[in-house]
Design a protein that fits this description.
heterodimer, A: 100 residues, mainly alpha, rod-shaped, B: 578 residues, alpha+beta, 2 domains, 38% helix
Chain lengths: 100, 578
């Protein structure tokens, strides 16, 4: 009778250790997953910061180019180019024909 | 013996157990103490190591001209600072930096040797300087991003725009007046940093929504350029000390151009004397001279006492009032009101004023806005000076009628002439037509404001006819007459008040005030030249500059010249008949 009980105990103890191992592996896996997601989160944070800086730099460049454009379009400069390089003169009232 | 050993071991184990239990209890108490009592303080201390405060500043708004061209913008610049405590070899650092930044070695070393934890080395350094300092790889040098104000058109409209200082605060002109709208706001945020000091995104560093508002001017960059070029040319030709020119739209009061000679560059405002910074057409007043005669004539015509053909005896060039004698440049006999204005007779104007009376003259001058602020949106406006008519002596009444003993600002004079051009309605002059947010959405719109009807539309029409004759042969303004457009105008030549008392014999203010086209005026122009040397008559000195501004501005605004209209009509008729 006692022998039978021992066999029964041995049979029931086997799956319980497996469950424990599985549980430990699961918890460890979860820890690794959590650590991995944290690392990913940090990495993404750095990437976002880098991209934002890139965006800021490009916006600055756009701003600077716009300013350069408005400097190049200044009436003084255009007038000077028209007179000196292109040899243009301002038309007299007689020479002006306004087309509507 | 065995029993004794066992007992001893048990006792030792109990002691060790108690010791450990005690230690655990102590640790437990400490943990509770750290978590509850010291928790917030420790959290803050830890946070300070991986968090830092950063101030984000919004960009100052843009100033656009009427055609949405940038007149003042903000660009990103880098300022160099030092944290002296972190610099090991200050002498060496100062030597290296002084070469790049072009700052004296002694000054730099003094800065670095101060006990302060932070000192500015150079605000808004050039990109080349920043690169060179970065290449030095010095410890304890900070590169701080800032905004720098930049005026792409340099001197264009500088006195109107004004400028802002190194800290982004408006100091002069519209930059000062509209500072509350233009300035960007600030936000203090905390960002995460790692052990290497790199910033970690917290999603807060975006400066969107912090930028200042933009303002849109009534000034047109091209008309401003036309005006400045003509003014500069006239001032250089006659070696004038300074000059002012204003172009205004009479129907609205919008100022299209406001030029001041000599110019200054607001990008380097410190290199110019303070006298050049001022918007003199608003802040300074002067004796207008003969341009005032049209307003005296307006008083006479509007009161109904005279009409354009009423004649006055001009005493052949000399007229005594008490102990004073008033002269004309040429002797005249009988002249009508129209001729008085055409030849600019002082005596004729005095006679007109005597007939009108001091009270009516004063009241109308006041209605035209003399002696009051126009209310233009610019700082430091002058009221000019017009004393109360009760205080006028007989000679005062006479001289005030032709522009002596009264002082006005250039803007007051332009605005008053605009009232004549605008059928007698005085409009409030303005420089800013709209304010938008940084994304261009309208925040505030400034529409034209009527002040009051100064003179009747009929009087205004009569005055226009009179002023048109000034430009015809025998008038003082022939040099300002335009080919293809009808022009109304009046010359002004005022002696300047001498520092020794009385009027100077060789210092004059030459001016020309007019509008075009005569029938439906689109632009009112005033040109003033201070102390011209070779000639001093307004018609000769300022008239041609007026002509140039009027011609080029009307062309730019696409107003068809009269002759072309006739030419077109002839062509159309031929086409129909053919």
């Amino acid at each position: 009778m006692a022998q039978k009980k021992n066999i029964k105990n041995r049979a029931t103890s086997k799956p319980s250790s497996l469950v424990w191992i599985m549980l430990i592996l699961l918890i460890m896996g979860e820890f690794f997953l959590y650590a991995w997601s944290r690392v990913q989160c940090t990495r993404m944070g750095y990437e976002i910061t880098r991209e934002e800086n890139k965006y800021k730099n490009q916006m600055n460049m756009r701003n600077n180019l716009q300013i350069e454009l408005s400097r190049l379009k200044s009436p003084k400069r255009i007038s000077l180019i028209a007179k000196t390089r292109l040899g243009l003169i301002r038309p007299a009232p007689k020479q002006t024909v306004i087309i509507r | 013996m065995k029993f004794d050993n066992h007992k001893q071991i048990s006792r030792r184990a109990a002691i060790i157990g108690i010791m450990f239990a005690g230690l655990f209890i102590m640790i437990g108490i400490r943990v509770i103490f750290l978590q509850t009592v010291q928790g917030p303080w420790l959290s803050k201390k830890a946070a300070n190591q991986y968090e830092k405060s950063v101030i984000i500043r919004g960009k100052r708004g843009i100033i656009f001209d009427a055609a949405h061209r940038e007149m003042a913008v903000s660009i990103q610049a880098t300022s160099l600072a030092a944290y002296p405590g972190r610099i090991k070899n200050k002498n060496e650092a100062a030597r290296k930096l002084s070469n790049i930044l072009k700052i004296r070695f002694k000054n730099l070393r003094r800065k670095l040797e101060t006990g302060r934890s932070f000192v500015w080395l150079k605000r808004q350094a050039t990109p080349r300087q920043v690169q060179a300092v970065k290449a030095l790889n010095l410890k304890g040098i900070g590169f701080i991003p800032e905004f720098n104000r930049f005026y792409p058109n340099k001197t264009l409209g500088a006195q109107v725009l004004g400028f802002s200082g190194i800290d982004g605060r408006g100091l002069e002109g519209l930059e000062f007046y509209y500072n509350a709208y233009l300035k960007g706001s600030e936000r203090k945020i905390r960002v995460l940093t790692d052990a290497l000091g790199r910033q970690f995104d917290t999603g807060q560093t975006n400066a969107n929504g912090l930028g200042g508002n933009n303002i849109i001017l009534t000034i047109d960059g091209n008309i401003q350029y036309i005006t400045e070029t003509a003014l500069e040319e006239a001032a250089k030709k006659y070696n004038a000390e300074s000059g002012i020119a204003i172009v205004m739209a009479p129907a609205t009061g919008a100022i299209l151009a406001m030029a001041h000679y000599p110019f200054f560059n607001p990008n380097a405002f410190n290199s110019f004397s303070r006298d050049r910074w001022r918007n003199r057409s608003i802040t300074d007043s002067f004796e207008p001279g003969s341009t005032m005669k049209i307003f005296s004539a307006a008083a006479a015509l509007d009161s109904g006492i005279c009409d354009p053909n009423t004649i006055f005896y001009c005493e052949n060039g000399e007229y005594r009032i008490g102990r004073n004698i008033i002269h004309d440049t040429k002797p005249h006999g009988w002249l009508s009101v129209q001729q008085i204005i055409k030849v600019s007779s002082n005596i004729g104007t005095v006679k007109v004023a005597e007939k009108v009376g001091g009270r009516s003259l004063y009241n109308l001058f006041k209605k035209f806005g003399f002696g009051n602020k126009t209310g233009v949106d610019c700082p430091g406006e002058s009221t000019g000076s017009l004393s109360f008519y009760n205080k006028w002596s007989n000679i005062d009444k006479g001289t005030i009628s032709f522009g002596q003993g009264v002082s006005v600002s250039a803007l007051q004079l332009t605005s008053a002439a605009a009232a004549i051009a605008n059928d007698g309605i005085l409009m409030k002059p303005y420089l800013v037509q709209a304010i938008t947010d940084q994304n261009g959405r309208l925040i505030q719109n400034f529409s034209p404001q009527k002040i009051h009807q100064v003179i009747s539309a009929r009087t205004a029409r009569d005055l226009k006819r009179i002023m048109e004759t000034v430009m015809t042969e025998g008038g003082t303004g022939v040099l300002a007459a335009l080919e293809g457009y009808t022009v109304c105008g009046k010359t002004g030549t005022a002696q300047k008040v001498s520092t020794h008392g009385g009027y100077s014999k060789d210092k004059y203010i030459a001016s020309f005030l007019g509008f075009a086209p005569a029938k439906k005026p689109e632009i009112v122009i005033l040109v003033i030249l201070d102390e011209p040397k070779k000639e001093h008559y307004g018609g000769i000195v300022a008239g041609p500059a007026f002509k140039k501004i009027a011609h080029q501005t009307l062309q730019y605004l696409n107003f068809t010249p009269l002759r072309q209209k006739k030419h077109q009509r002839v062509l159309a008729e031929n086409e129909v008949s053919g």
